[in-house]
Amino acid sequence: MDNDNENLKLMESASIPKAILTLAIPTVLSMIVSLIYNITDTYFIGLLDDPIQLGAISLAFPVFMIFQALGNMFGSGAPSYISRCLGAKKYEEVKKTSAVSVYVSATAMLVLTILGLIFMEPILHLIGTSSETIIPTRDYLSIIITFSIIIMLQIILPAMLRAEGKVKQAVAGMIIGTVLNIVLDPIFILVFGMGAAGAAWATIIGNAVAVVFYIYIYLRGNTIVSILPRDFKPSARIFKEVLKIGFPASLSQILGSTVMVLFNNLAAEYGDTVISAYGVAIKMIQMEFMILFGYVSGYMPFAGYNYGAGNITRLVKALKFTIMTASVLCLLFLIPFTILAPAYIKIFSSNEEIINIGVKFLTAQAWAVPFMGIQLSLMATFQATGQAFRALLVNMGRQFLFYVPYLYLFNYIWGLEGLLRVQMAADLSTTTLSVIIALHMIKGFYKKEKEELAKAT
């Protein structure tokens, strides 16, 4: 428990920059590792110089995201509640919450796996596969869906470790899985000639080894969070607290997958190369989003812990620090979205049309990049403090509420040029919305901060 005490003291009494950076930097590294994990598949498929295989990965990605979304229902909801319980010293509730989250989500994923395999053909037609892309897309998805429980565990197990402050262990598992994936990708894709199916096998095996590592960490008994069957004690309170944060996050990701399908169906009118270019460009957009989300995820357990402990002054200072530093990180991201955009796209394809369209996607998105730190810092605060409705609005904003209307409107008015600017417009609108709905929360924080100061004097 010594390490656990150190982690809790870090959130409770360490200087705010030290606490946030200590928690955030390993989480950012884990996100970078995760991105390498995803980009590796695209890179080695790109070496085949086959737009059909590259398109298959892009078409399958929304379905992959839906399976990830179920893991995120508990992977987002459980850590939020766990952090608040740690701040309130409710350690038994932490054990119950973690065990319930793992076993319930595993059961749900098994059901989803069966349904996914049964309805494989309708899914393939729904996501916009053509007569050329349907076979490699089916090969990829059949493997991913069959072993989706591994993907779910690889999401939720490290998320609960991060909620306890054990970010190093969470990152270590991610690195192990990613290194294995990088080693296996060229073997399966290029040497064995398995194409998209080889990328799927490399992903599953890498995830499986990471899961084994996480289970070892849990079973050593040095964690407050638990996966032991004896702690599986479901209660209405646990489901309420986990799902009020986890469901909006999961719904947002499912809707995000849905709009990718809608995008692919509209983009198909302009040719398979557009879908391939979008598939490559979206990796960079997700890279920015995931690294920033990794950074603010380091802030989330800190925010939840201090909110649960009633230390609002410390929470407010941490929010200011996180917005400022996340915004600096955003400004650095302008470089790959502008200057380095052509070089980035060329890594994955030598097709001139794919390169030109991919660069246009990235340079359009650059307009929204500087403001993403504000959006994600506020969203993390909503999640950490249990404000489900506000978290839902921000989550759904960029993925659905703004994205879908802009998608059809821009396509109708500007055609392909309009499609290139949809995500940028949705992100700018969502950032504006997040600031507006955060004003009441921030006023409440300052009111409680004044009360704390009055009591202290």
Provide a brief overview of the structure.
The protein has 457 residues and is mostly helical. Helices cover 85% and strands 0% of the residues.
Secondary structure layout plus pairing:
Layout (H helix, E strand, L loop, with lengths): L1 H12 L2 H31 L4 H37 L3 H28 L1 H7 L7 H13 L1 H16 L3 H25 L4 H24 L16 H32 L4 H37 L3 H26 L3 H8 L3 H14 L6 H13 L3 H14 L1 H12 L1 H4 L2 H35 L1
Helix pairs in contact: 2-3, 2-8, 2-9, 2-11, 3-4, 3-6, 3-7, 3-10, 3-11, 4-7, 5-6, 6-9, 7-8, 7-9, 8-9, 10-16, 10-17, 11-12, 11-14, 11-15, 12-15, 12-19, 13-14, 15-16, 15-19, 16-19, 17-19
Supply database-style keywords.
457 residues; mainly alpha
Notes on the protein architecture:
The model has no long low-confidence stretch (mean pLDDT about 85). The chain has one domain. The chain has helices at about 1-15, 15-45, 50-85, 90-120, 120-125, 135-145, 150-165, 165-190, 195-220, 235-265, 270-310, 310-335, 340-350, 350-365, 370-385, 390-400, 405-415, 415-420, 420-455. The two termini are about 35 Å apart. By secondary structure, the protein is mainly α.
Beta-strand portion reads under 5%
Provide the number of structural domains: 1
Rounded Rg: 21 Å
What's the total helix number?
19
Number of strands: 0
Outline: globular
Helix-strand makeup class: mainly alpha
Helix-strand topology string: HHHHHHHHHHHHHHHHHHH
Q: For the residues shown, what is the average pLDDT?
A: 87
The low-confidence runs, each spanning 5 or more residues with pLDDT under 50, are none
Helicity, as a percent range: over 70%
C-alpha end-to-end distance: 35 Å
- Biggest sheet, in brief? none
